[in-house]
Design brief:
mainly alpha, single chain, 11 helices
């Protein structure tokens, strides 16, 4: 796919999110800001105290839980939105695919860029908040693009496999929706693993997204570099999934075009 066409898809996608609203594109900046403000002023005191009483070690700052939550929720939103949207790309764009000759394998790439833009906007507001409370330590933030790249590669690969099968089996969309809801609660995004009985801790090791969340929080909350071995494992899984997805797609591409 040509870069100009890809960028046009990105631009249109960002516009379509808030088309028809009074404030239009301004919502692309206001929504992340409003989310962060809610997490800071609504959740910090209540949930921070509750988790501390249950054994969640988040540090001494009154904003520790807010930092923990925001660093996780921004990443999770990009991750889950990428999977959900890539999984439905061919059914959602069926009319376009039927009219224009387009590379189906490259079509979902615009979703990666769009979600990266939304994540970047949110992180800019988040960084401003950390700066205001004197908890912005940028020396380790150089790792963030790498972690985000691994995360989105995994999300894209997983979503791409779902997209192939979603054309052939319409129930895949519902399975993805339900699966992401379960995945969210099986990942310590809004809670800390320390509040759970120790016998359950082993199962979190098997969840690739847990290692991504730990990497983000090591940088943002604990001011230390991420552990590279878990990231390498997640990246390897992502590459294998992408390879399988492309192989399945190439074998079924003619059937996919017929079903669309």
């Amino acid at each position: 796919m040509r870069a100009a066409l890809l960028l046009n898809f990105v631009k249109q996608d960002l516009v379509d999110r808030y088309s028809g609203s009074f404030m239009g594109r301004a919502w692309a900046f206001l929504m992340p800001l409003l989310q962060i403000l809610i997490f800071i002023f609504v959740f910090s005191a209540v949930m921070g105290a509750k988790l501390a009483s249950l054994g969640g070690d988040l540090g001494e700052s009154v904003f520790a839980y807010s930092i923990y939550l925001i660093s996780g929720i921004l990443a999770w939103n990009a991750f889950s939105n990428t999977i959900a949207r890539v999984a439905c790309i061919y059914s959602d764009k069926a009319a376009l695919i039927g009219k224009v000759q387009i590379d189906l394998a490259a079509l979902p790439l615009y979703i990666l860029i769009t979600e990266a833009v939304v994540y970047l906007v949110g992180m800019l507001f988040f960084a401003a908040f950390l700066f205001l409370i004197d908890m912005f330590h940028p020396q380790y933030w150089i790792w963030l693009p790498l972690i985000f790249l691994v995360q989105q590669l995994f999300a894209y690969a997983f979503g791409f496999i779902c997209a192939v099968f979603n054309v052939l089996f319409k129930d895949v969309r519902e399975f993805v929706t339900v699966g992401l809801q379960l995945w969210f609660w099986l990942t310590p995004v809004v809670y800390v693993v320390g509040i759970l009985p120790e016998r359950f801790h082993f199962f979190f090791i098997l969840n690739p997204v847990v290692h991504l969340m730990d990497a983000y929080r090591n940088i943002v909350l604990y001011q230390q570099p991420p552990e590279l071995m878990p990231l390498a494992v997640v990246a390897s899984i992502a590459v294998v999934l992408l390879f399988l997805g492309v192989k399945i797609f190439r074998r079924l591409e003619r059937d996919i075009r017929d079903f669309i």
